[in-house]
Amino acid sequence: MTEHRAYRVHQPGDENALSLEHTPVPEPRAGQVRVRHKAIGLNFIDIYHRTGLYPLDLPTGLGLEAAGVIEALGPDVHGWKKGDRVAYCSGPPGAYADSHVVAADRLLALPDGVEYEVAAATLLKGLTAAYLLHQTHPVQAGETLLWHAAAGGVGLLACQWASHMGARVIGTVGSDAKAKLALARGCAEVIRYREESVVDRVMALTDGKGVPVVYDSVGKDTFDVSLDCLARRGLMVSFGNASGAVPEFSPLLLAQKGSLFITRPTLGHYATTREELETLAGLWFEAVLSGAVTVDINQTYRLDEVPRAHRELANRQTTGASVIIP
């Protein structure tokens, strides 16, 4: 094969900015391999890249996550061979394609029993859940936590995992269907944020104390609510902007609301080294293989359906994980 299909973004914009193009098959350079994709992941960060909220040098490929087999190795690559089953979830963007060239030291070997679709649909989300639950705030058995968008891609995985670790998980959802799904996947309680006050319900469920930690990937729409749900000296973990960027605020606000803490973590800072990456991957693959987490791949798209996939993800019409099959 001398060419392949790959999405390119030439200018930031809506899903119409996605251009599916036929381009030469990329050749790996020193320290790189080319992965022939079996399945590709869909993540909200892809939308941030497309719209320019997280700016990239243009034109650019899109997509950070995929699974497949190694089909070519560049010079100075050791420890890998053609045909190895692998997955990745790091840059440079370009996973929305039949194949992609990535750094060999950012590849992860797929354990037996982990399918391509599961890896592609969940690796970025699973590693995110791993650092959030095990490192940003090490979840303790018996504690109560609040997770916004509990039926979303990261939420469904993390709520199950936190529950398996012994936490009591309160999740927020936007519909009865998502409430049912969240309850089946780890949440002890769900709050339908369109119908009831999240703060009032959290306080009722915690005897007025609030929770020690809130995990919030929604951003602008939930920021104030999240702070008001925290217990004294609680931690606000803001790890996404699905509704838009969090507004500017004074640090004094944190003092006024109970000497709160806030962090804005990213996977890149928790998986900077090879050792850190393998630690998180080990936690995630073990959670999947042990059955602690059930992976729900609820949407499957063809490569030429990526614009529709972006639209449905942005409009909160998806649940669980999604996968793109080239």
Automatic annotation (TrEMBL):
Q: Please tell me whether the keyword Zinc-finger is annotated for this protein.
A: no
Q: Which GO terms describe its cellular component?
A: cytosol
Please provide the record's keywords in A-Z order. Answer: NADP, Oxidoreductase
User: A Gene Ontology molecular-function term?
Assistant: mRNA 3'-UTR AU-rich region binding
Q: Where is the Enoyl reductase (ER) domain?
A: 13-324
Keyword Heme set for record: no
What is this protein identified as?
A: NADPH:quinone reductase
